[in-house]
C-alpha cells in the first residue's frame, strides 16, 4: 500500500492524494499513466532510483516516465528519464522522443535527438517511421533545427 505521507513528502502535486472537499478517498484512480510506468514511478519515489528495465521495455518506459515525471512534478525523474532516452536513441523512437522533448522542455534531449538525425542516413531511417508523420504535424519547422 502506498503511504500518503511518503507521497506528500516527495510530490508537489496535490491532486494525486485524493483529498476532495476536505475528505480523503480510500482509493485513488489514476488513469493517465500506464500501470507499469506508475509502478516504476513509485519505485523512484521510494528509492530515488530507476528500477531495472528489460531491454525491450526500456525506451517506451523511459518515454512514459518522462511524461509522468512532468505531470507529477518529479524533476529528478524527468532528468533521469531524459538521460536514459539520450543513451538509447535509435531511429525507431527518435521522432516520438523529439516530440516529448519539445513538449516537456527537455532541451538536452532535444539536442541529442537533433544530433542523432543530423546525418542523411539517420534522417532517412527516421523518416521511414510512422512517428515521423506525427513529428511533422506537431512541429513542422523542426527540419530547420537540423
CATH superfamily: Potassium Channel Kv1.1, Chain A
Q: What is the approximate shape?
A: elongated
Order of helices and strands: HEEHHHHHHH
Going across the biggest sheet, name each strand in turn: 1-2
* CATH class membership: Alpha Beta
Question: How confident is the prediction overall: mean pLDDT?
Answer: 84
Number of domains as seen in the coordinates? 1
GO biological process, one term: protein ubiquitination
Domain BPM/SPOP BACK: 94-146
InterPro entries: BACK_BPM_SPOP, BPM1-6, BTB/POZ_dom, SKP1/BTB/POZ_sf
Pathway: Protein modification; protein ubiquitination
Description:
By secondary structure, the protein is mostly helical. The protein is 59% helix and 3% strand. A two-stranded antiparallel sheet has the order 1-2. The chain is elongated, with a radius of gyration of 17 Å. The chain starts with a helix and ends in an 8-residue tail after the last helix. The model has no long low-confidence stretch (mean pLDDT 84). InterPro entries: BACK_BPM_SPOP, BPM1-6, BTB/POZ_dom, SKP1/BTB/POZ_sf. Belongs to the Tdpoz family.
